[in-house]
C-alpha cells in the first residue's frame, strides 16, 4: 500500500504526505493518539528519526514535533501523523512501529527490514 498524495500545504516547501513507507500498528496508533490527547495539542506529529549513535552505529528517536521541515515525509494513520526527515526516510522504508505492554516490557518497538543487525538492548542498529 504505497500511494502518494499531493504535497502538503505547509511552511516547508518540500513535504510529502504518503500512505506507505513506515507503518504503525493499530495498537501503536491508538497509543500515539492517547499520548497526543494528553498533550492537549492537535498540531503535533510523531517524528521518527534515525541518528548516529548507540552501540550498533545508528539509533531511533521518537518524539512529538510541531515542525514541518523541507524534505519531510508524512504518513497518516487516522488522526495520527508520523513524520520522517529526508535523511531518515530511506532507513525506515518498510519499518513497522508497534506498542507492547507486557509484564516484562512496555514501549514502542520498531521492526525494520533495513537493519542488518542490532545490539542486545534493541535501541540501536546498523
- How would you sum up the major sheet? 6 strands, mixed
Topology, number of strands = 9
Number of helical stretches of at least 4 residues: 2
Terminal Cα separation, in Å?
26 Å
Order of helices and strands: EEHEEEEHEEE
Q: Tell the overall outline.
A: globular
Helical content stands at 10-25%
Record the strand order, biggest sheet.
Answer: 1-5-6-3-4-9
Overall mean pLDDT score?
A: 79
Pick out the low-confidence regions: 1-20
Structural class: mainly beta
DSSP strand (E) fraction? 35-45%
Gyration radius over CA: 14 Å
Describe the structure.
Helices cover 14% and strands 36% of the residues. It is built from 2 helices and 9 strands, in the order E-E-H-E-E-E-E-H-E-E-E. It has helices spanning 26-39, 89-92, and strands at residues 16-18, 23-24, 45-52, 58-65, 73-77, 80-84, 96-101, 106-111, 124-125. The chain has a 6-stranded mixed sheet. The protein has a 3-stranded mixed sheet with strand order 2-7-8. Mean pLDDT is 79; it is low at 1-20.
List the helices and strands and how they pair.
Layout: E1 16-18, E2 23-24, H1 26-39, E3 45-52, E4 58-65, E5 73-77, E6 80-84, H2 89-92, E7 96-101, E8 106-111, E9 124-125
Parallel strand pairs: 1-5, 2-7, 3-6
Antiparallel strand pairs: 3-4, 4-9, 5-6, 7-8
Give a brief outline of the structure.
By secondary structure, this protein is mainly β. The protein has 2 helices and 9 strands; from the N terminus they run E-E-H-E-E-E-E-H-E-E-E.
Amino acid at each position: 500500500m504505497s500511494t502518494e498524495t499531493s504535497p502538503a500545504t505547509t511552511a516547508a516547501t518540500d513535504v510529502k504526505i504518503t500512505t506507505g513507507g513506515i507503518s504503525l500498528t493499530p495498537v501503536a496508533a491508538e497509543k500515539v493518539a492517547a499520548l497526543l490527547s494528553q498533550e492537549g495539542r492537535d498540531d503535533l506529529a510523531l517524528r521518527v528519526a534515525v541518528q548516529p549513535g548507540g552501540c550498533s552505529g545508528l539509533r531511533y528517536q521518537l518524539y512529538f514535533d510541531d515542525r514541518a521541515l523541507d524534505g519531510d515525509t508524512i504518513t497518516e494513520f487516522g488522526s495520527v501523523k508520523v513524520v520522517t526527515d529526508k535523511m531518515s526516510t530511506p532507513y525506515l522504508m518498510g519499518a513497522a512501529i508497534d506498542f507492547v505492554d507486557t509484564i516484562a516490557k512496555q514501549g514502542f518497538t520498531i521492526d525494520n527490514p533495513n537493519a542488518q543487525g542490532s545490539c542486545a538492548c534493541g535501541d540501536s542498529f546498523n
